[in-house]
Amino acid sequence: MRRRLALVCGIVIASLALGGCQQWSTPDVTDRVADASGAEPAAQVLVGGVTSEVFSSASESTDTQVLFIHGGSYVHEASALHAPFFDEILSNANATITMPIYALAPEHGYRVAYAQMLDVYLALRASHPDSPIVLMGGSAGGGFALGFAQSLVEQGLPQPERIVLLSPWLDLTLTNPDIPAIDTNDMLLDRDALIPNGLAWAHGDDPRGYRLSPVNGSLAGLAPTTVLVGTNDILYPDALTLEARAKTAGLDFELVAFAGANHVFAMSPGRPGDEARSIVEKLVRPLD
Asked: What is the reported pTM?
């Protein structure tokens, strides 16, 4: 079921959608992120051999584990705005959020990043066998998250307990015929700028494959899935396509469309972002 929220989007910082911080491998990264956001520095640790930022409000070993895949059009590290977003979620839910610093294009393609994400996911499963896992991603990370969940089905591995996608990039080709009509209203994304990044991420493989464009993949066997997206986002038409395919497949699926909202509004100030964060909290909290 789709809930259309007639809300006006607040100002969204463009760097969250397309830009990013400098490489998070620098020694002072956690302090820099904290200074930029006002959030507490995250712990930077190895999870499954992959350097990851870890934020936590967990009080029990069985509290929810959130595996968060950041966006940045597959070529940028995570924005500093993720830290305050995580802090708000964790202020109302007992959980641990793990955000891997995965390999990026153009130096690396999706295959390297998928292998890293599997290592992190299996490590979380092994170290917290009694904890529910929420697989969450924003923008490019939302597409990555859905493709990764589909790859788990293909490999016969357990699904997370829930999938949450924030303004996901579901089709690298951006060929949906409804995109041009929205393009004039999208203040953040540019189709012509995104496509080269997607092709760099594909590393020569067919960009229509499900690991790259999960809207084309099988939805059978996936965990319950929630998508939050704004109607002024060029990625919105593909979210509608995913909704239609999910209905046909019988997937437990909900699309929450925010009228007038732009890309990654859930991580931005303003009423739409507040509403979206409240939904995310509720999706995480019942799994405590």
From this structure: 0.87
